[in-house]
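User
Take a look at the entry that follows and flag anything odd:
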Amino acid sequence: MSGTRHVLDNPALASLTGPHAHFAERRGRILRYPTDVSPWVGLPDDPDADDWADLAALAGPGAEAPLPGFRGVLPEGWEITFDLDGVQLVDDGVAAAPEPEAVRLTAADVPEMLDLVERTRPGPFLPRTVELGTYLGIRRDGALVAMAGERLHPPGWTEISAVCTDPAFRGEGLATRLILAVAHGIRERGETPFLHTGAANTGAIRLYESLGFRLRRRTRFLSARVPEPSADGQAVGV
């Protein structure tokens, strides 16, 4: 990454070459998380033909490859499958605080976490996502009803992610309490919280801004399908 760019301009690449390097699967300049941990891919700022070929080989023919933040022109044969404008917000005075009701979630809680994610759709959460950092939850009558945790980890920063609440328990401020608790843990390590959401998710953006986050940049959440090999065995467009 160029020294003139901020570490949050390409947070997946910064994570996979930094604190999350032990997760990285690499081919050339392309890095990614294991597919059961996170869909994020570390793409160079200026991908060339060799990079696209490496990404195609790493993902596999016909697979969907996430291209977070990419705003260039896709090579011939790559088909956009998902395209969403997003925003990145950073801590600008968040009143971080521990949450007495929150419990640390572990691998044993993953089935319940996956069930909550399926019902609330906060974004990608996979069987090993819990390994990326601290995940906190709130239980009622033994059942997991809200959670939030840590995902991308560029040097000096940690992303808050998977913020979700069971619909039956919304309106109680559980998500807010968990966001502040996760932020507290990040701050305790001497790091700074940040997060992403969809640009059209105005309700969430208002909540985050009310908690002390500020808009840092606009970004793009993009996925594209890897071309199938041509008759000569070469992937089209790479």
